[in-house]
């Protein structure tokens, strides 16, 4: 075995460790955010008339898509 150090390998291992911590933190924060969003959805009452309506400006937009 060699007795010399390899700074590139150490940099790679540090980056790998930092990336793992960052991914774990993002997953934990995302989980909390989703839980809060779910609670807010259940608490908010739904409007009676939330159905889709095709209005003239919607029809005009669809017409531009056909061209």
Describe this structure in words.
Keywords: Signal. This is Twin-arginine translocation signal domain-containing protein. The chain is mainly α and 67 residues long. Helices cover 72% and strands 0% of the residues. The protein is built from 2 helices and no strands. The longest helix is centred in the middle third of the chain and has 37 residues, at 7-43. The mean pLDDT is 74.
List keywords for this structure.
single chain, mainly alpha, Formate_DH_TAT-contain
List the helices and strands and how they pair.
Elements (H helix, E strand, L loop, with lengths): L6 H37 L12 H11 L1
Keywords: Signal
InterPro entries: Formate_DH_TAT-contain (IPR014177), TAT_signal (IPR006311), TAT_signal_bac_arc (IPR019546)
Organism: Halomonas marinisediminis
Average pLDDT metric: 74
First-last Cα distance: 69 Å
Strand content: under 5%
Largest sheet: none
Number of strands: 0
Secondary structure category: mainly alpha
Number of helices: 2
Secondary structure: helix percent: over 70%
- The succession of helices and strands, N to C, reads HH
Shape: elongated
Low confidence ranges: none
The Cα radius of gyration reads: 26 Å
Report a brief summary of the structure.
By secondary structure, this protein is mainly alpha-helical. The protein has helices at residues 7-43, 56-66.
């Amino acid at each position: 075995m060699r007795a010399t150090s390899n700074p590139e390998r150490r940099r790679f291992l540090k980056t790998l460790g930092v990336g793992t911590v960052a991914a774990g933190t993002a997953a934990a924060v995302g989980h909390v955010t989703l839980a809060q969003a779910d609670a807010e959805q259940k608490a908010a009452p739904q409007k009676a008339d939330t159905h889709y309506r095709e209005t003239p400006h919607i029809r005009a937009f669809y017409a531009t898509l056909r061209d």
